[in-house]
Structure formats: structure tokens, C-alpha cells
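tool=predict chain=A
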Amino acid sequence: MPSNIESSVKYANKEVVLTSASNVYTFNTDASGVLQIAEIIPDEYTINTSWEMTGAQYKQLISANEMLEDKAKVLLKATIANYPLFDTKNLSVDLEKIIMKSLLISKVYYSGTKDNRNRNYTADSFVEIFNNSDETVYLDGKYLALAESMTPAAYLASDDPDYIYTRQICKFPGGGTDYPLGPGESIVIAARNARDHTTSASNSVDLSTADFEVKELDGTGNPDVKALPVISSSVPLKFLNLISGGPNALFLFETDEDIFTWQEVFAPGKTSGERFRKVPVSTVIDGVEALKNSASTGPDINLKRFQDIVDAGYVFINGISGYTNESVERKISEIDNGRIILQDSNNSLDDFEIISGPEPRNYDNQQLLNQ
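tool=predict ok
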């Protein structure tokens, strides 16, 4: 079993399937999680087993708290390909834990590009959120936030295991069921301006049909696009302040608490300037950390703002300062009866690709196929 599961929990009464070129056997483990096979036709077999549960069920089995939605899908599984069974053997199988969260940050376009006069263009940034589950999920009342991005960093992940120190927090509107997101569907959030940016920068993106625009009020900006207001900010900005070269540590969280009762703090050693609201790690649904790239050394992992439980890895763009028309986008894990399922190993370095020329809502890019 995975190491964080209580030792008293056994892989009991679970189906194990052995498949060869000519035979298929199905067995069940005993109460101790052991399978004893008395007879089998000698051959090479692929061994498969899995245990699916909800996030709520999983949290009852583990020895420590873990950030996870109750409705998330958790899979303990193992596959051993072409295992030779020609004589008596004892085999220990390690189970892999896979957590399929419902809402995932699937695309972040923050680099900007060059406009038609070859000037830096940053008004076209966007974030895309994807429903990776097989059930409808509601965005109502959930939060989209950016961690602080000061230089030097104010609060690193290593400074506090329990909190993320935020620069900006946006809250989705709705009363509970106003903004449904079906299985395999996504929403696009224009970070600054929900318009067709290709009229100013021909290789940019068309955000005129975005689902949300980060702004204060409905009817402003693009009047046809719903407002996603910034409700907490360490800087006097009304748009989502994604930095063109990074860092951008972006996350979704959910809570029933009043976030305005949560503590705000200055950077260490300061008594003025930006104040960062502390968000408990335990409330996070999903997080993606984009580090700033360096021409000589690459990204500096010592500057991570996210704890491993939020994002064990990181992403980055090739451009050092941005303006390269690059996005970071989540890979496709599988396609189930036409429904795209995105990869989520909780490690952005493995889960994401750098894409040139992003397209909102498009998941046909061959680079995203996880082969």
C-alpha cells in the first residue's frame, strides 16, 4: 500500500486480473490483501488490479491530513506487464496512488507576445479551468488566487508548511448552482481584457468569447462577459496580475469561512508596503507554479512558493522575460468514450507542456498527448 495509508488497512477482497495471449484469470485477494494462486497455465501474464474510492473514503484510510476534495476520485492501482509465470513464485506488488481532482488549472498563458508593431503586448493573458471528473461541478463561490511574487521572495514554501501568502484573490459569483461545468468542459478567464487580441497582435488569442473577465463589475470591459472580481489584493490592481516572465503561482481553493477574517501580513522585516493574505493549504483544490526561467541556470526551485502537497514540481516558459506567445498546458492522460481526461500527478513538471501559440479550449495539440 502507499506509505501514507494506515498499516492496519489491507488490500482485502480486491479483484486481480492476469491476462496472457491465450488466457484470462480473475482472482480476489483475501482479508490480509494476499492472493494465493494454486494452479495456472504457465505463460507470461499482465497483472492488473485497482481500488477506486472517493476522496472522503480515502481520507479515512490515511495516517495524516491531506489536501483533497471529498468528491475527488482516488485510484490505487498496479500494472505489471509480461510477467513470466512458469514456476512457483512469490510476488510483492506496489500500488500507485492516483488522485483525479475534479477542477484543474489546465492552461495558463502569461508570457504575452509582440503586437503588429513589434512592441511588447501583455493584455491577452488568460487562465483555463477544466472539469476532469465524470460529474458536473459548480464554480459558484470558489476562489482563484495568485501567490505573492516579490523579488526577493517574501514567503517561500519552506518558510511555512501550512499557508500560501497571496497577492490577489478572485471569487467566482453565484449562489451554488449558477455556474455548472460539465465533465470534460472548461472555462476561459481573461486575466485583463476579454476581446479579440489578434486585431492588435496577429499571433495572439481571441478572448472575446471568454466565460469570465477579471474586472470589478458586470457590464464593463467586454459587457457580454461575466465579471470575476479581485476581492483581495496586495496591490491596487483590478485585473489578474500575471507576470510576463514569471513567477506566477496560481491556485484554486474553496472554503466556507469568511476569508476577510484571515490574517494579512507584510513581508518579513517590513511594516509597510504590500500585505499578503494567508490562505490555508488545506483549502486548496489545485495549484500550478510557474517559475521564472534563467538563461544560464534555468528555473530556481529554491524560489517555490507552493508546498509539495500543492504542486510537487513547477512549470516555466522558454522566454526569459516573456513576450514569446508561450503558454503552459496540461497533458492529456487518456480519452474515455470521447471525454478528455487530463494528467494530474501533482507535479507540474511532469503534467504540463510548453505550447507555442495557445488556443483557448483547444485540446487537439499533439504535444499534449501523454505517450
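The chain has a mean pLDDT of 94. Residues 55-59 form the longest helix (5 residues).
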